[in-house]
Design goal:
By secondary structure, chain A is an alpha/beta fold. Chain A has helices spanning 3-16, 19-24, 26-32, 41-49, 53-58, 85-98, 117-126, 198-205, 299-311, 322-329, 356-363, 378-385; strands at residues 75-79, 106-110, 134-138, 150-151, 164-172, 186-193, 212-218, 226-230, 236-242, 253-257, 263-268, 273-277, 284-289, 317-320, 344-348, 370-374. In chain A, helix 9 links the parallel strand 13 and strand 14 (317-320). Chain B is mainly α and 164 residues long. The chains are: A alpha/beta (386), B mainly alpha (164).
Chain lengths: 386, 164
């Protein structure tokens, strides 16, 4: 039978038996596959991939078939929050010793408080011969904003197969020469910068494919004066700079040169200075530019914010938090850039942040289509300043 | 579905294991690496005939579901993988199936090399296991406990920490 006639009869026969009717015929479906255990081992392993390792180990009790399946997991994920800090290392040792997998892909450790740095280094280097694509290490919990003091384990720098790297609560201490990360697309760092200005630059210069960068920096005791984010492949950049103390310190110079950047998120609570270049593709920007509790602003801050705006003027979506609007209000007499492509603006305003800046801002957005004003935060602000 | 192009390769015909035929838009079919590979091979040969791709491991019921998924995902561009609307749709899509259907769907996704659907199914199964007791998992997935009491005690002892 040639294809076209087969197609015709086939389609006809299919029309006679509508799918939904068959689907209700549960009996028939059950004949095909009726239990999760009937999945082939490699697919059960895939299901186990998505479980925390302690959950995966628990499946060993289900039945004979399941007894050793967990040992083939390709992802180790342990959270210290679920155990006491003493238990964590023996659990991880147990897992590392028992897992027989030859192709670990992901390694995620959420260490309990006060984890020993030499242990951590050992654990991380244990999977060093595998093709790890995803490495996530939380060395600490920062819920109470105590400063992290764990230096970056050097062995991380040997995982050249990484695609995703997430390090929370490390000092950045990157050696002069490091291996490159030719596949690394996503970096998420929650760090303090102690290692001179070049640390971040060096890391970034080793990532020719980097698309996503999350940088959450603690600025207390910072020795760096300049952060240079010049990454031509970068598409998404989230920058949060936090100062936990109130000590006076010098402002950072932050240079951003990213011709392919689309999504740009800045949350800066200490008025650092920005130089943005080549952001011609940027289309979605969020800005929170403030100094907590500060009610008057130096000229330099206003100039810096307006310069930043000029750099992102091609954006189509823009969100400004009330603190940013407060700085804007005090800069009414300055020249503001025009946002020719801006179609959606989300503005958080209050009596303190100044509704006066709204009309001036609207003049800068000739093609605005959607304006969302958030006035809800007013009560919160009154509370802070009250 | 009106065809704007005269090229026969804008669509392919996929045959399920129970001999039903499905006409599939090329863009939709390309969500499956298996189908994409077939299409690419035929295009390389310069064939202008209708391609018939038999899938000996997938029934019409399940194939309809896989194609529904592919159709939805073909509507979104590659870099929209994090799209909230799509994620919501994915979740609603899987939610309506019983575990038997879900298993078949997982197998089909594996066979047809539709990686995002495979991940989605496995993640969904994992999520449903996560907060259950061992007894509940056995019950829901119809897993028979074939351990002797001694073996069961041994395993619990060996991995004691996991069973708290």
């Amino acid at each position: 039978m040639d294809i076209s006639s087969e197609l015709e009869t086939g389609l006809k026969s299919h029309q006679k038996r509508p799918f939904l009717e068959e689907c209700r015929d549960k009996e028939k479906v059950h004949q095909l596959v009726d239990r999760i255990s009937d999945l082939p081992d490699h697919m059960i392993a895939h299901v186990l991939y998505f479980l925390e390792t302690n959950e995966a180990v628990r499946t060993s009790i289900l039945s004979l078939k399941w007894r050793y399946l967990w040992k083939g997991v390709t992802r180790i994920s342990l959270s210290g929050n679920n155990f006491g800090s003493g238990k964590f290392s023996s659990l991880l040792e147990h897992v590392l010793q028992n897992c027989t997998s030859t192709n670990f892909l992901a390694y995620e450790l959420n260490c309990p408080l006060a984890v020993d740095i030499s242990c951590l280094n050992t654990w991380i280097s244990r999977l060093h011969s595998h093709i790890i694509e995803k490495l996530i290490v939380h060395a600490n919990n920062i819920i109470n904003l105590t400063l992290p003091v764990t230096p970056l384990p050097q062995c991380i720098l040997f995982y050249s197969t990484l695609v995703t790297l997430k390090l929370h609560c490390f000092e950045i201490q990157i050696p002069e020469s490091i291996a490159s990360f030719p596949h690394l697309k996503s970096i998420d760092l929650q760090v303090i910068f102690l290692d001179g200005e070049a640390a971040v630059n060096r890391l970034l210069s080793c990532c020719p494919m980097l698309e996503n960068l999350n940088l959450f920096g603690f600025l207390d005791d910072v020795k760096v004066l300049k952060i240079d984010i010049s990454v031509s492949t970068l598409r998404k950049f989230d920058l949060r700079l936090i100062e936990t103390g109130t000590n006076y310190r010098k402002k950072l110079d932050i240079v951003i040169d990213a011709p392919n950047l689309e999504h740009f998120y800045i949350d800066d609570d200490s008025f650092n200075r920005y130089v943005v270049k080549n952001l011609s593709l940027v289309s979605n920007v969020f800005v929170n530019y403030e100094s907590f509790g500060l009610a008057t602003f130096k000229r330099a801050y206003k100039v810096c914010l307006l310069k930043l705006f000029k750099g992102i003027a091609t954006t189509r979506f823009l969100t400004l938090l009330w603190s940013t609007a407060a700085v804007l209000r005090s800069a009414l007499s300055y020249g503001w850039p025009t946002f020719p492509y801006l179609i959606k603006l989300v503005l958080h305003l209050s009596s303190i942040s100044g509704r006066t800046c709204l009309s001036k801002f609207l003049h800068c957005c000739p093609n605005l289509k959607v304006l969302i004003l958030d006035l809800v935060s007013e009560s919160i602000i009154t509370y802070f300043y009250g | 579905m009106a065809s704007s192009s005269s090229s026969s390769l804008s669509r392919v015909v996929v045959k399920s294991s129970d001999n039903n035929l499905f006409v599939v838009n090329k863009k939709v079919a390309s969500q499956s690496q298996l189908l994409k590979q077939c299409i690419d091979n035929m295009e390389e040969k310069g064939t202008n005939d209708v391609i018939l791709i038999p899938l000996s491991n997938v029934t019409s019921n399940i194939l309809t579901l896989v194609l529904e998924y592919c159709e939805k995902h073909a509507d979104f561009a590659d870099d929209d993988n994090n799209n909230q609307e799509l994620k919501q749709w994915d979740h609603e899509f899987l939610k309506k199936f019983d575990y038997a259907t879900l298993n078949s769907l997982t197998m089909a996704a594996d066979y047809m090399v539709t990686k995002s659907l495979l991940n989605l199914c496995c993640q969904f199964i994992a999520d449903s296991i996560k907060d259950l007791t061992v007894q509940q998992i056995r019950q829901i997935f119809d897993i028979k406990n074939d351990f002797t009491p001694q073996e069961e005690a041994d395993i619990k002892n060996e991995n004691a920490w996991a069973f708290r």
